[in-house]
Design goal:
Oligomer: single chain
Distance between the termini: 39 Å
Number of domains: 1
Shape: globular
CATH superfamily: Sugar-phosphate isomerase, RpiB/LacA/LacB
Strand content: 15-25%
Structural class: alpha/beta
Number of strands: 5
Number of helices: 6
CATH topology: Ribose 5-phosphate Isomerase B, Chain: A
Mean pLDDT: 96
Low-confidence stretches: none
CATH class: Alpha Beta
Length: about 150
């Protein structure tokens, strides 16, 4: 499985740990930056290219990290075809994939420790979408929002 990773300054250190973890598990990792610590960088500059790679199928899943995880989640979800979740617990890491076909895991490096982050990533990557009718129906409604005309 090809995994994309991205982080701003708030998640820069954790991203390095994530990359080592993923490579040790045999995943192919594509790093979308940041490539140097810069306290003035902006999460969209790294998360949006990751999200676009998810949407085009260049990578199968993504891990985006910022200080809280909130900005990364908001940015990733702006790209059609991306289903990003801000996850800080194991139930949601699994259920987000099984029920909602989540394809980007967003983490807050200033919220959780690296051990929990790596555990959540492992759960996220091991989970598979159930394909249940009710989940397919819900995803179709979300897809219609992405592709249909904007409504007030």
């Amino acid at each position: 499985m090809r995994i994309g990773i991205a982080a701003d300054h708030g998640g820069f250190e954790l991203k390095a740990e994530v990359q080592k973890f993923l490579e040790s598990k045999g995943y192919t990792v594509e790093d979308f930056g940041a490539f140097k610590m810069d306290s003035g960088d902006d999460y969209p500059d790294f998360v949006i290219p990751l999200a676009r790679a998810i949407a085009t199928g260049r990578v199968e899943r993504g891990v985006a990290v910022c200080g809280s995880g909130v900005g990364a989640s908001i940015a990733a979800n702006k790209i059609s075809g991306v289903r990003a979740g801000l996850i800080h617990d194991s139930f949601s890491a699994r259920q987000g994939v099984e029920d909602d076909d989540m394809n980007v895991l967003c983490l807050g490096a200033r919220v959780i420790g690296s051990q929990l982050a790596l555990e959540l990533i492992g759960i996220f990557l091991a989970a598979r979408f159930s394909g249940a009718d009710r989940h397919q129906r819900r995803l179709a409604k979300l897809h219609a929002l992405e592709t249909g005309p904007a409504k007030a």
